[in-house]
Amino acid sequence: MSTKSDDELARERLIDLAVKFYDQFDEGDIPHMDIPTRTKSNIVFDEDSKVWVYGDRKSTRSANSVRGARKLLKATYAIEFLVRQLEENRSSTLRELYYLSESWDAEEAHFNDQDESNQLIEDLEIVSKVTREDFHMRPEESGATLMGPLKLREQTRRGEREIHCQEDVGEGGYQIPNNPDTIEFIDHDIDFILCVETGGMRDRLIENGFDTQYNCLIVHLKGQPARATRRITKRLHDELDLPVVVFTDGDPWSYRIYGSVAYGSIKSAHLSEYLATPEAQFVGIQPEDIVEYDLPTDPLADSDVNALQSELDDPRFQSDYWTEQIELQLDIEKKAEQQALASRGLDFVTDEYLPTRLDEMGVI
C-alpha cells in the first residue's frame, strides 16, 4: 500500500471515530469509547501469530462523568488536529502534541502532562487500528542504528537515496527512521541479525569487525527498543528470512528487552503482530554465564528480585529455559553487564563468547 493510501486510511478512520461520537449523541446514548485493559492479566497468547495480544477485557472512556467527558473532549480535539496534519502532509512529535494542546480554545482539552497525551495517541491507535506512524506522529529521536552488509533504499524529503549500511556510513552506522516501512531492502549478504542492548557493546563488536567476519547485521537497541527498531527487525526477519538473536545484559530488565523484541510488550500489545518477532532467540548474559565465566557482578537489588519473581509468572517467559535461568539468578543473587565479558579480554566476546553461543544455537 502506498504512503498516500495509508494517509487516506488513517484520515478516514480518525473521522469515523469522531462521527461515532456524534452518532451516539444523535441516538440518545452517552458518548463512549471502549479500550482493551492494558494490564498483564489481560494479555493472551495468540496461537496463530505466536505473540502476546490484548484479551477481551475492556475499559470504557465514557462521558457519564466529568472525568470521562474531559477524556473524550481531549480525544476529539486530538482527532481534529491529526486529521488536519494529514491533510497538510505535516508531522509532529509526541512531545509537540502535548505543548500544542495549550493552544486549543477549550481549556478542558489541554493535556495535564505528556503521559496523558501519549496514552491518548495509543488509545486512538487501538480503536482505529491505524499506527501512530500513519498519523504522522513521531517520538523523540531514539538514535538506534544498523551496521552490516545491507543495501537499502530510503525516502527522504529530497527524494530517494540508496545506502549501504557498512560502506556508506561512518562508525555510528545507519540511523533507523521513525517509519521503517518507507525503506526498501535492495540487497544483502547478511547471515543473521544481532540486536545489541548497549552502545558500549555495539561499539566493541564493530571495532572488532564482528559484522564483517560473520556477515552479521548489528542492530543497536539503545536500551528498551523503540517501535521503529522492533519494526525494522521484524521486517528484516520476515522479508529476508534471517534469524534474529538478542544480546543483552544479565538482569531482569534486560530480559524484558528481549521479551519486547520477541513477543511484544503490554504497552504495545495491540501492535504485536506488527512489531514482534517470535522467532528471536536470546543470546544475552545468562546467569549460568556468570557462574561459568566467573564474571564481575553486582548484587541483586530488591527491585531486581521482585522483577525476576514476576517474570516467573510472565507469559513471555514460560519455558523450561527461562525458569531454570531465573531460578539460578535468584539463587546466586547476582547480575552482570555485557561489558563484564571484558574481564577476560577485549576480544573475548567476539573471539569466544558469541561464536560459541551462536554455534550452540545453530545460528552460525
Query: Radius of gyration, rounded?
Result: 22 Å
In terms of quaternary structure, the protein is: single chain
CA(first)-CA(last) distance: 35 Å
Under CATH, the topology of the largest domain is which? Dna Topoisomerase Vi A Subunit, Chain: A, domain 2
Alpha plus pi helix count: 13
- Element order, helices and strands? HEEEEHEHHEEEEEEEHHEHEHHEHEHHEH
| Poorly predicted spans | none
Mean pLDDT over the residues: 90
User: What kind of sheet is the major sheet?
Assistant: 6 strands, mixed
- The CATH architecture of the largest domain can be named as 3-Layer(aba) Sandwich
User: Looking at the structure, what is the overall shape?
Assistant: globular
- Structural domains: how many: 2
**How much β-strand is present in the residues?**
15-25%
Tell me the strand order in the biggest sheet: 10-7-13-12-14-15
* Helical proportion, percent range: 40-55%
What is the CATH C level class of the largest domain, in words? Answer: Alpha Beta
Structure overview:
With 364 residues, the chain is α/β, with parallel strands linked by helices. It has 2 domains: 3-138, Winged helix-like DNA-binding domain superfamily/Winged helix DNA-binding domain (Arc Repressor Mutant, subunit A, Orthogonal Bundle); 145-360, Dna Topoisomerase Vi A Subunit, Chain: A, domain 2, CATH 3.40.1360. The chain is built from 13 helices and 17 strands. Strands 10-7-13-12-14-15 form a 6-stranded mixed β-sheet. Strand 8 (150-156) and strand 9 form a beta hairpin. It is an enzyme of class 5 (isomerase).
